[in-house]
Specification:
This protein has about 140 residues and is mainly alpha-helical. The chain has a two-stranded antiparallel ribbon.
Length: about 140
């Protein structure tokens, strides 16, 4: 069975999306992305430094994205031991802003193409959404 048979809306989806960089690099999108990236990070040095000169940093990111020269910075790696030892790699705050800006634009595009029974890594779906579907059908 093909993908289109599983998801009838797939055939009506546009196959090409133009001007995504402009949408990702839009100042309002970057501003909201910075707000989202800041969740749970208040009081940390990287986000605080970014917030001090927020407009300057967002304009720099916008320019780099529009010119096609933005490149992700290196990850910071560290160990945590709760609940078990594991290595964590964390992106710098400016990169997290770009990640959120990108997701805000492309997530709705991809969301339309997912089948109704797909629950992994989707807002409002997850394990609880699958459970609700299972008990209602």
């Amino acid at each position: 069975m093909g993908f289109a048979a599983l998801n009838p809306s797939y055939e009506s989806m546009p196959k090409r999306h133009d001007h995504l960089i402009e949408a990702i690099a839009a100042f309002d999108n970057l501003l909201e992305a910075a707000r989202l990236a800041l969740r749970g990070k208040r009081g940390r040095a990287g986000p605080a430094n970014f917030q001090v000169a927020l407009e300057k940093h967002l304009l720099r990111l916008r320019g780099e994205l529009r010119e096609g020269i933005w490149k992700p910075s290196g990850f910071r790696t560290f160990m945590v031991k709760d609940p078990k030892p594991r290595l964590i790699s964390a992106a710098p705050f400016a990169d997290r802003v770009v990640h959120h800006a990108l997701c805000r634009v492309v997530e709705p595009i991809f969301e339309r193409g997912f089948i109704a029974d797909s629950f992994a890594n989707r807002k409002g779906m997850g394990t609880q959404g699958k459970f609700v579907l299972a008990i209602t059908h």
